[in-house]
Amino acid sequence: MALPLPRGLTPAEVAFTCEMELVTIVPRQRLEALELLGGTTPALVPPRRANVALWLALLLKRQRRANIVPPPWLLPASLSAVLEMETNPAVEGFAPTPAAPRSGGAAASPPFLPSCTADAPRNALPYHWLEVGEMLLEAAADDFDDPDAVRMLLKDLHEARGAKVRAGTQLLDAGGVFKLNGVGGMEVAESRGFVVGVIDGLRKIGASREQARREQEEEEGGIGGDEGDDDMDL
Amino acid sequence: MPLQQRLRGRPAHAPGPTFLSYTPNGRKLITVGLNNAIRVFETGSDAEPTNIDDCQESNTAVVATNDFFLAGSEDGTVCKYSLHTNSLDGILVRCTLPVRDIALSPDGLWAAVASDELTVKVVNTDDMERVLHLKEQTKPVKHVSFDVGGTYLAVSCTDGIIYIYSLTTEEPLLVRKVDGLIKGLETDAEPSSRVIWHPDGRAIAAPTPTRDIQVVSTNDWERQRAFRNGHTADVTAAAWSPNGALLASASADRKLVLWDTKTQAVLKTHDDVRATILAMAWHPTENILSYTNNDGELFIHTDFVPADVSSLLEKTLVAAPFIHDPFAEAPGNAVRGRQELTNGVHGKEARRQQGATRRARTPDSLDEILGLDDEEGSDLDGFIEDDEGGAGAAGHKRSAAAAYLDEDGYANGHAYKRRAPAGPAWQPRMHPAFQPGSTPWRGNRRYLCVNLVGAVWTVDQDSHHSVTVEFYDRSFHRDFHFTDPFLYDKACLTEHGCLFACPPSMIGGGSGDGGASSRPAMLYYRPHETWTARADWRTELPPGESAVAIALSDSYVVVVTSANYVRVYTLFGFPVRVYRQKSAPAVTCAAWRDYVLTVGNGPVGADGRSTLTYSIEDVARDEVCQNEDVVALGPGGNLQSVFFSDEGDPYIYDTTGTLSTLLHWRTPSQARWVPLLSTAHLARLASGRKSESYWPVAVAQRRFHCIILKGGDANPSFPRPLLSEFDFALPLQPPPRPAGGAATKRKAGGVADDDDDGDAMDADGGDANGQPDEAAAAHALTQTYLLHALQHAQLLDLLTGASGAASSSAAARAGLARASAEADKALLQLLAGECRGGEERGARALELVRLMRDDSGRMVEAAAKVAGRYGLEVLRGKIEEVAERRALEGVVGGDEDE
Q1: What pLDDT sits at residue B90?
Q2: Most buried residue, A68, B82, B383, B503, by CB count within 10 Å?
Q3: Is pLDDT above 50 for B667?
Q4: CB of B403 within 8 A of CB of B693?
């Protein structure tokens, strides 16, 4: 292999893709609309809120030209509600993602949904929750009321969900299906190595068993095929 | 002096820390100390005190009621003794560690016990089984003290934080942590960190590490005045006189100081104290201060207050020393009355406070209890304040929503008081004047103006103020700040300049001119930038006149004065208009370009309150647009703010939380108020779990900008909170929340959603149940249509109204076309919904088509196509008829102005 990179996106790449997300800022300086390849940015007039792409928001924040309004799901209260749901053994699966808007269509997928703006739903984690949360905490910690609590909750949530993903691989052993609905982009990226490894391992084990079964079938001449299958299932 | 001679120490106990307490009726004085005896002194008798011998050793605290007293000891017991039999009644509560302090609620029912344990126990003195535990503090507690009403308990912890608990609820509730006020002291240290509640109930005081005694208001927990420069060592004891007019304090350098509450000046210092005073108590009625020291002695200091100031002690309740007392302030601040602590529970307290500031009244006097208030009618201020319904008082947990229900507050706090049977002639209730965008004092700071350009705030520095002007757009203008000897109390900020007004001063202008003559009220305009060297100007108002409200537009300065004049100046200080306001007293004013809007108290309405009336004048053309028309408010609502939007339409926000705009105001007598948003019905409040209020700032780009206030605050705090924005939503139907069906369905569907607040609605779209969805969509479309129709009407006004058309006509025309198209688009979408409903809703669908303004003539065509697509040929035919008729008339949608 020329490029020894694992398959799929690396975390850095996932973080890069999430910079397309729109976030709400309160500008502190006027800025005319910019005509960019990716679209026109809104004209910024302080103190009116505006939704801009995360990369632009971070740029403006670093230059102290704007304050970022954390999305509602990134407030300690909503994070702890989600965490409660995640750690509740009675609830299966992961916390729900924000619902698609009514007038759906092709544009109703993450980067085009306002899932990280100030009017995003507060009780659902969007696809890029971990990346956006980390980036905002890193660049705009002063715009949070209680950044430490948010940091702690994000970490807890990350660990709780990570454990769920790993635990889910047990189902794969029995040939079951594990539902990853609601798992964020970064979580998929970071658990990809592990899950792929597990599946590979399972396949290898399965392959040797398969081999053994085939040999057995050949010996018995196809009559004991059903029995052989039963053995496999056990 | 003979008085001094009588003062002698009475060796009450073995040398060591000694404490005392008066009974509330003042007849007896109880002291406890190191030895195992408790002594009960009779006031006014020099006879030997009664000894109670069957008690614990080394008692550290004592509190008394008329019938019994409690003493806490180092062995951890709190014992109850009867004052009738002078004997031990029994052990009230037992702690594992030494007891440090006991406080008794004013009714004597509950005793708070602080020991070296981490929790404070609040024990019922009748039933010792009933114990509340206060657990929020992380370290042992040194002092506890109840407020005058007995509902709050201040706990001075050894970590240097004061914890304020509310005991009104079943489970004690931590209301507030006050950090940085007291020093962290060990529980057995001699210096004190005790909180003393001022008898008027609005303030606490506590010794600070800097050896001052700092007063803190209890409604916003801001620091108020302090008793400074009296002590050179840590304060060991302090006590308010029973009426709050005097403060006595003692320090470790063996000084005993008597302060005047009002001026915070030292009235008298006693340097001849023999040993460090550890506890002191005023006699409840007489001029006696008793104190005990750390040497086992008791001093009963009769005639403690010198004769020349003893009149202070005879006063009835004196107000706590606030920097800016919300009750004593002259009118002129936005919604100031809401600071008041009035609700059912605190009615008595509130009445006391009112009494405190306005007239002599003895605490618990008969006329207070009966609620006879002979000054009530003439007291206009009080009237209005009460009317606001007492939200305020942080810690006094009233929801902001309740705060707005002013009739409610009116009823439960004051109803019976209002029925003054022998009151003087009835007087109408007038609306107080206010300056839009300003707040009352909060501690020593207040906002003079908050709008979308920036904020102006001022800090009281005793001799002068310092004013800071901040801009949102930092690149546009630099923030500036200046020292203000004139004590400006009103300000306006625009993109071009800043206008200030100061009231007349009696003693000749702060530090400036030292003349004894009074200085008249003054206006000061300061442009942000200019091409001449100095363009700021000051102008004085005639003597005796002061500014009630000021306004600044791009071209004029407007002042409404106490003499009922409206004075209009140009931006260079040239007076262009002076005229009498027709309705007076004035309430407020606002200005935008050439338009001046003034609001005054008009004739008395049916509800006994004066109706607010407004006039709008075009100064440049010298025309009156609206003459003394009524400011329509909701039932019981008061005007909270008046402002022009960026498009130049007048908006009002009232205390019922409704934002309204004035439509067709350029044509005389055509104006009407249209509600655009009712914040009480916002989806975010639908869950009922949030209590917040909205402090209006501005309307720009057809959104309402406000500051969200939480926890019963009435005004924004420092530092300035972020602005929030809300879209307009006409109050058409109950908030869309009742789609509870959808929410429960979703829950049943396995998604155990936290389902918080209004966001359930955002998420609603996801599920398949079409019915509520469609209704919601139709509702949203109706909103869109109405809002755009409204915008269309506003823009049409702007364009047909002659002035102002010149500058913005191109943009306005474009906006007009867009609004019209958007409105039609919403109708078209609604039509599609109706068509889906089938043939029987055809009439309604046709009506929608008739509503279309259809500037281009294509909308009706499209409507016909929509009807065709749904196979409704009859409807299609009718729509085409409409189209033909319109084409014939050649007029498009002329008479369907919505």
Answers
A1: 87
A2: A68
A3: yes
A4: yes
* Predicted pLDDT at B405: 35
Task: Point out the residue among B701, B759, B766 whose CB comes nearest to the CB of A48.
Answer: B701
pLDDT number for residue A58:
94
The per-residue pLDDT for B416 is 39
Parallel, antiparallel or unpaired: strands B87-94 and B595-604:
unpaired
Give the distance from CA B10 to its chain's centroid. 49
Q: Do A96 and B767 touch (CB under 8 A)?
A: no
Which residue in the set A26, A78, A99 is minimally distant from B766, CB to CB? A99
Query: Between chains, do A123 and B763 touch, taking CB under 8 Å as contact?
Result: yes
What CATH number has the domain spanning B445-506+518-726?
A: 2.130.10.10
Contact B452 A48 (CB under 8 A): yes
Do the Cβ atoms of B846 and B860 come closer than 8 Å? Answer: no
Q: Which of B687, B705, B755, B759 to mutate to test the interface with A (most CBs of A within 10 A)?
A: B759
Q: How many CB pairs under 8 A join A and B?
A: 79
Beta bridge partners of B740: none
B341 within 8 A of B350, measured Cβ to Cβ: yes
Contact list, B750 vs chain A (CB under 8 Å)? 92
Provide the pLDDT for residue A191: 84
B295 three-class SS: coil
Distance of alpha carbon B108 from alpha carbon B105, whole angstroms: 5
> Which comes out higher in pLDDT, residue A228 or A70?
A70
| Distance in Å, alpha carbon of A124 to nearest chain B alpha carbon | 8
Q: Which residues of A touch B (CB under 8 A)?
A: 26, 28-30, 45-49, 67, 69, 72, 78, 81-82, 84-85, 88, 90-92, 96, 98-102, 119-124
Question: What are A70's two structure tokens?
Answer: 């954390």
Contacts of B755 in chain A (CB under 8 A): 123
B637 CB contacts (<8 Å, ≥6 apart)? B406, B654, B655, B656, B658
Q: How far is CA B540 from the centre of its chain?
A: 32
How many angstroms away from the CA of B762 is the closest CA of chain A?
6
Region at B264 (left for phi over 0; alpha for psi -120 to 50; beta for the rest): left
Span B248-298, pLDDT tens digits = 999 988 889 999 988 888 988 888 888 889 999 999 888 888 999 888 888
CB contact under 8 A, A123 and B759: yes
Report all structural domains of chain A as residue ranges with CATH numbers, in order of start. Answer: 11-95+110-192 (3.40.5.50)
Asked if B334 and B438 touch (Cβ cutoff 8 Å), the reply is yes
Mean pLDDT of the region B74-90:
88
Q: What is the ipTM of this complex?
A: 0.73
- Could you state, in order of their start, the residue ranges of all structural domains in chain B? 445-506+518-726, 775-799+809-893
Strand B575-580 with B703-710, pairing: unpaired
Q: Which residues of chain A make contact with B757, given a CB cutoff of 8 A?
A: 122
